[in-house]
Amino acid sequence: MCRPASLGDDGGDQDGAPPARRWWATTGSGSGRFLAWGGPVRRGGPIPIRGRSDCPNGLDILGRAMARRVDPARSHLDGPIPPPIRYSTLYKLATPNPKSQRLLPRRRRLPLANVAMGRRPARCYRQIKNKPYPKSRYCRGVPDPKIRIYDVGMKKKGVDEFSHCVHLVSWEKENVSSEALEAARIACNKYMTKHAGKDAFHLRVRVHPFHVLRINKMLSCAGADRLQTGMRGAFGKPQGVCARVAIGQVLLSVRCKANNAIHATEALRRAKFKFPGRQKIIESRKWGFTKFNRNDYLKLKSEGRILPDGVNAKLLGCHGRLSNRQPGQAFLSDDIVA
Fold first, then answer.
1. Distance of CA 132 to the CA centre of its chain
2. Prediction pTM value
3. How many whole angstroms separate alpha carbon 223 and alpha carbon 107?
4. 44: Cβ contacts below 8 Å, ≥ 6 apart
5. 13-27, 122-136, 240-254: segment of lowest average pLDDT
6. Cα(279)–Cα(81) distance, rounded to whole angstroms?
7. How far lies 74's CA from each of 42, 77, 79, in Å?
8. pLDDT digits (tens, 9 = 90+) for 39-53
9. Is the pLDDT of residue 221 over 80?
10. N-to-C CA span, the chain
11. What average pLDDT does this structure show over 20-40?
12. How far is CA 326 from CA 113, 163, 303, 322, in A?
């Protein structure tokens, strides 16, 4: 977008020429924004440009803005098109980034020490090939895991509320990053909340990211080859955390009622896309998060041998003080005792 603005001291020339105009162009993407302006457009010669950019692609944005800086509807006010701007001038205005600096000669590149480095892809750390490296007093400066909530939904509902349980089981031995666990938790929770209701399920993340990932940072600025040491002292600094997962280990579990089991299966199917490797969705035969089958649980409960314990249940056996048992429940049959 370009608009002319009259100068205060330019009222026109002696020969009756129209007053000089200044042009300015603004453009931006996100938080980055350019403001560039130049001298009178009817005067020839180079145009001094001043600007600021916070976005990495600010150079291309400003270049496109300069290419179409004349508004066709106001061409009679803008005057002739100024000469094109040299890209070497634009490079000095924008924040240096590796892609733009490669286009410049090595002697004219700007230092890139202030450019933030992105997180290394998780495929670099997928394979389990080292010993567990947890956070300790020897391993300091470890960033916090991305996932901070492991139980979502009605986590305080009793064991009798939700009878069905669906698991997402890992089918590979690999590392699963904390970012992937958080993304899967959000995807599963969003689907269950929308289709089953926020009071109709309990989601639990079954693995915890304790393994610390390391990175040996290399400088990428101009002249960094003089500062790098190669493989000398290559033990890296902590970059993130992940969970070491085995084949057949449960990643996510959802307990719900029988009518919402199909929604839990679909929610876990969507959560699969957040993980690398292969996973399987298995509908459990157990009652909720307990270790008892659904038929056995109902039978034991009718006999009074189940003691609720939060989201789990305890089985009353034959051992213990006789004074703690009710009449008729002092001795239990040995064929049902777990």
1. 24
2. 0.63
3. 10
4. 83
5. 13-27
6. 61
7. 15, 5, 9
8. 444 444 444 444 444
9. no
10. 77
11. 43
12. 74, 27, 13, 8
193 and 304 in contact (C-beta within 8 Å)?
no
Per DSSP, the three-state class of 3 is strand
Question: What are the tens digits of pLDDT across the range 276-307?
Answer: 999 999 999 999 999 999 999 999 998 888 88
State the Cα–Cα distance between residues 54 and 34, nearest whole angstrom. 9
Q: Which two tokens stand for residue 333?
A: 């049959």
| In the block, residue with structure tokens 């992105």 | 118
Alpha-carbon distance 141 to 135, whole Å? 9
Neighbouring-strand partners of residue 282: 167
Predicted confidence (pLDDT) at residue 260 exceeds the cutoff of 50:
yes
Q: Residue 169, Cα to own-chain centre: how many angstroms?
A: 22
**In angstroms, rounded to a whole number, what is the distance separating the alpha carbons of residues 183 and 81?**
51
- HEC-encoded secondary structure of 130-189: CCCCCCCCCCCCCCCCCCCCCEEECCCCCCCCCCEEEEEEECCCEEEEHHHHHHHHHHHH
What SS3 state is found at 218? coil
Query: How are beta strands 306-309 and 312-315 bridged, if at all?
Result: antiparallel
DSSP state, 108?
A: G
User: Which tokens hold the place of 280?
Assistant: 């399987």
